[in-house]
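DATA SHEET
Item: assembly model
Revision: 1
Owner: S.N.
Input lines:
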Amino acid sequence: MAMEKVLQLAKLVPAGEAALRDRYEVFPFYEAPDREEWVNAHGAAVRAVVTSGHDGLSNDLADRLPALGIIAISGVGYDRIDLERARRKGYRVTNTPDVLTDDVADAGIGMMIMAMRNFQAAGQYLRDGRWPNEGDLPLASKVSGKRYGIYGLGRIGEAIAARLNGFGGSISYSSRAPKAVPYRYYATVLALAEASDVLFVAAAALPETRGIINQAVLDALGPQGFLVNMSRGALVDEPALVSALRDGRIAGAGLDVFAAEPHVPHELFSLPNVALTPHLGSATMAAREAMAQVMVSNLEAFFANRPLPTPVV
Ligand code: 8YV
């Protein structure tokens, strides 16, 4: 029997690559010397697209895959997929929740500590050979015992909260509706920011959350406050963030995600009060292997006409 044709838009870990190639005829689109030519020749035969959370699938490309039956994301975020179009055209979309939750939450806590204790700039100071001549650095902010706010209390938000329980402060959150959790609820992110020393962004990027971390929210967080974003850059008004950081209207930020990744606003590079990482919340071998496995199990279910393990659409 001929193998099903899968168009692959993002590279996977070796175990994921092997699992995919064992089962399907895979076209790694990112390696195609001439994508246009490839789509013309093979687009009509593609039944499945494999992609990452941040690569998604553009409608322009989707338009050229008339036999598309499923977009299997190796990632939890589906903000780069037009779900409305998927519903309309009748193809499925799957993601990989749960298996990356711990890793993203771990990274969020690391990011908070890195930003508040100034570890990233301090590491650079040491590597630049400045310690012997210039001595000790200015003192940083205490991390424990603070008022922690989490915007978006989904799986990842809850996992961040579970870890924050060990820090001896108070935990609040804002999300669409209050949940049965022992944390204080605020109806708006503005009210949450006002009541927080550290504001974690853990909500999905949706049209209604775009730019929601705006100047007013940053001013409410205040000159002692820190922003930590492990979700999507689109939720933050980046120019407003840059000016709040530059003017000391917030104390600092830890950012793993950016609006126009992999491009990062250059103004951030020279600011001493930010910690920056290149979207690596889920970037552990364990998480990526598990994500690839869940992604492949969705493809298998799709092609076998079984219920999809983790459907979005
Ligand atoms: C990665 C992510 O970008 O899961 C997501 O939504 O943003 C990340 O885990 C990714 O999809 C890795 O393949």
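QC remark: Residues 10, 52-54, 74-77, 100, 279, 282 surround 2-keto-D-gluconic acid (CB under 6 Å).
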